[in-house]
Amino acid sequence: MIARMKPLIAGMYAFFKKVSSSIYRPLPWVVFAAVLLVSVWRIASFASVATAAPDQGAQPKTGGQPAAQLTPEQVQILTKQALDAQSAEKLKEEVKGYLEWLIAIAGIFSIVGTIAAGFTAQAFTDQAEKSVEHAEKKFQGLMQSSRNQLKRFRRKYGELVVAEDTRRKALESLKEHKDSVVGADGGFEWRGGKFYALMDSSKRQRLLSSERYLGYDLKLNIDDKDNTPLYLRLLANFYVAKFEYENGFRSGHIGDLERAEYLLKLWTRQYPDQFEMRNDLGLIYTRFYAFFKALEAAATAEITQQKAAAEAKKYLYLARDEFTDSRRTRPNQQRAQYNLAFVSGEEGNLEKAIEFLKEGVGNSNWEQKPNAENAGQLNYNLACCMALKIMEDKAAADAARVEELVKFVESLDGKAHTPREQVDQDFDYDGKTKKPKGDFYDLMQALGGLGQAGKDAAKRLQDARAKLSP
Length: 470
What we know:
This protein has 16 helices and no strands. By secondary structure, the chain is mainly alpha-helical. It starts with a helix and ends in a 5-residue tail after the last helix.
């Protein structure tokens, strides 16, 4: 029974607290005012009675004579006066009682007000404690909800979090490794595949895994003009170096070249005047060209040869366009001219190739800064083109042109920076027993059959040959 009554008691207690907190302030004043009004009314009644009643000790004037016998009317009047005096006395006592009650009620309600104020303060404290407890519960609920959401996020997107972390570390290791591919002038060098080959296998595989799962292009920040072009160039040259390295084992995959092309185009489409990346892109197209030329030479079916030849021609034109745009944007460089000379040579235009190379020799920066090794390669290629042009023009007997060539080769003493294998190939490969034919081979053979002047020129070239390699 008591248990069933508890909810009712608790409800009444809560109701009383709520009501008391809202009505205790005006209630004493209402009661006090009511008692005061009643008291004032009774005092007014008393005053009227006291005024109307004669002095009870007064006697009727008879001129000093004994009072005569009272008539019935007089008796009635005297009786009424006596009753009025008695009523006034009673009213006086009643008013006195009202005033005492008024004072008592004022004191009582003062005490009640104090008690109510204390009760309200306690109610406020209880309410504050409940508010704090409620806020704490809400906070704990919010924290628990956040933890649950984080758990759901990790369950749903945990793989992406891991992939992003792996990609970040892979790119950092690629940036640390860039010294093997970035020259002293800031230019990239991927030939020979050393950027890929010299990288630790675990790091390059981690990079490849992160690229397959979450490619750099999927989170590309095109507005970051410092890091984005750097990583795009690093990744592009990484893929080209991978192709070069694997192609040395006859396992190069053209998809790596396509990936490199795609990465660079992400930037050049937005910033077409970025000439360094245009040079990189043009160089990739020369690799496409070489790939399809090799395929054309190896193909046995005529249809395959035709398709390969068409692809090779297409990519050579694309390379020329990129190098031309780079040269137009930055004419005082050497790299664009060097590669335009290569394109012209492949097209069979040796005269144009020599023009580009001589223009490059007149510049001092490879791209942004001087690069002695690449500048030496440019000078060596100029010597090769001059030798080929003499043979193309059947001018081996032209002593002036031969002398010009010999002096130029001799001036490259310690400056050509050309690998020994390349120099040996250009002087010794006949194109039959050893392929491909070297650029100096035919001229050296022709000079040997032109008498003593020709033999002397050939000997001078042989002597200078040893100084073309570091």
